[in-house]
Specification:
Helix content of chain B: 25-40%
Number of domains of chain B: 2
Strand content of chain B: 25-35%
CATH architecture of the largest domain in chain B: 3-Layer(aba) Sandwich
Largest interface: A-B, 21 and 29 residues
Shape of chain B: elongated
CATH superfamily of the largest domain in chain B: P-loop containing nucleotide triphosphate hydrolases
Shape of chain A: elongated
Largest sheet of chain A: 4 strands, mixed
Low-confidence stretches of chain A: 165-174
Oligomer: heterodimer
Order of helices and strands of chain B: EEEHEEHEHHHEHEHEEHEHEEHEH
Number of helices of chain B: 11
Strand content of chain A: under 5%
Number of helices of chain A: 16
CATH topology of the largest domain in chain B: Rossmann fold
Structural class of chain A: mainly alpha
Radius of gyration of chain B: 23 Å
Distance between the termini of chain B: 37 Å
Order of helices and strands of chain A: HHEHEHEHEHHHHHHHHHHH
Chain lengths: 375, 330
Amino acid sequence: MRKIMTIVGQQLKMFFKSPGTIVLMFVMPALFSFIFGGVAANPDSAKPVVNVVAGEGKATDEIMKLLKKNDDFSWRQVSLKAAKSNVSEQDSIAAVVIPNDIEQRMAENGPIFDVMIERKTESYYSLEPLLQGTASLIARSYQAVDPSDSSGFPQLLEMIAGNQGVSVDQQVIQKERTKQTDMNLMFVGFSIMFMMFGLSGAASAILDERAGGTWGRLLVSPAAKLQIIFGYLLSYFVMGAIQFVMLMTAMSLLFDVTWGNLSYLLPFASLVILSVVGFGLMIAALVKTKQQAAALSAVLVVSTCMLGGVYWSLDLVPDVMQKIALAVPQSWAMSGFKEIISGSLHMGTLGKDVLALVLFTILFFAVGIRGIRFE
Amino acid sequence: MIEREVRHGLGVVNVNLLAVQDLRKNFGQFEAVKGLSFTVEKGESFGLLGPNGAGKSTAINMITGLFPPTSGEIRLRDIDIVRRPKQAQKTIGVVPQEIALYQEMSAKENLKFWGRMYNLSGKKLEISVDGVLEMIGLTDRARDKVADFSGGMKRRVNIGAAILHQPELLIMDEPTVGIDPQSRNHILETVKRLNHEGMTIIYTSHYMEEVEYLCERVGIIDHGQVIAIGTLRDLRESIGDRSRIMIMLDGETFNQQEIINHLEGSGLSVDKDILFKENLLTAFHKEPQNILGGLIQYLTRDGIKISSVEIVEPNLESIFLQLTGRSLRD
């Protein structure tokens, strides 16, 4: 055991003396998480602004409420002058003018909204169908009420604006993903990706050591092969764990991120780190030089992270891609983290995730240890 | 079973520390070592000499237990190295050809790490590391990164890491490659001192002067086989204690076959005493001064121009050249 710990200590010392590894393992994921976390933690600021110029009146108020039901845009009520200025300065993507004589316009089949734009942006193309739909709804509402009842139209609009939409009688199996869970998963995703880069880089140091002679020197020392390889693997595991704990702590302090039940999170994260260590070992075993290892791991890490839902949710990709995702360990890791962080802890899903990761880990270690040359 | 070797005539009986018997190693179809056998006595300094690709490093790697032989036997005292390499490795120190150190760590950190790998710890490790640093002359640079050292200093730490645990047998695989003369002298003196203190040494090198300086006995390896083994005196006698006359000819004015024809009558045997390689004609003779005049006369008779003449006393290079027809650096 003393020899194993000596190797672990020595490898960690080398690790902390290598600026490249520290950048890859700590600085990059922290930077990515900070930038993306900053964006995700304050999503309102990223919403396109739409100015609304509205006169007074019950119907106008209800139309305003109807528009504000859509929270993909930031609706801001301003004066006509300010709206013109904002549009021309492109501070808002459009200004929607709700005319004071709206009922008269509807009676004459005239346009319900006047829209001012500086140019047709992508955001405007998203806004346009919403405005069309709202206008159509208002027009139909107007036709549905008795023209002699002046309060009928605003009342109907109020009813529509207050409607809760579809009611779902849902049996909660897995908790609904919240924006907070998505953000936490993003941090985990970045950690996994950079851990894969960092640890495959660290594991491929074995190749440098073989070329430099220290690997051979270790092999002719009284340390057993098992002690040597276990020492190296344990050191990589510790590096991964340090990275994960440091990022978890930093994110918790910076963005008030919560990580779910730690008694589930820590064993599961350990399994993920172990599979990443196995991945690094496998890369080191498949190539002959550190440069080859860097190239191969770059290709494998980026592509499998894309497939595995590290950069975006797998819910957004087609079925066929979701099926392909099952072939990469990241999809199982992300699924497990989602269960734990969201607090669902659905044992069926979590069990499958753990089993898949165990199988991947065994595969990686089998290829890695078989391929590492002890001569 | 390898029998113990007894040296007669000195009034002492020396027991073999290392015995290598009919060692073979194949890499696929290539036979790198072909039936190597030799013994090394306790306290002896034994040199393994051979050109690149002769099989020295392969033999050394098998002796240190890095990889097993295809066949054959290696014993360190009673320990079968092939079957129980880890037991043997406790008492072997290995200085590899490469600078097998962690460049980003200091000399002291490196020595401590390697000491721990050889089961040293605590006070014993501290004393050993300090002692070795003093021996290799790097006490004042102990805390400096190895990467900042000169080639010679790195080589010294490389040796230091192999002697921390005071091995019975120190195996050095070309430990002075690519260093300045001052560092080489320091290393040779250190090795000599270790040997005088009782450490058994196996030293492989290209440099014959090093082997001649350090080693009592020498084994010459070529094409994976020992082609000669013995003390320097034994080896010199085996080639008739002949000096080398090295004559450099002008490249454009001679024809090799013509010269050989000329020398037929010079008293030298063209098969045994003459070697021709490019412009260098080498002749072997016990009394070179007696034949030099005649030789030059034979050569210059038909207008062959001579660039230089050198007489070299019998040494390992002569022995190797005569045994293999090649120089060591071929």
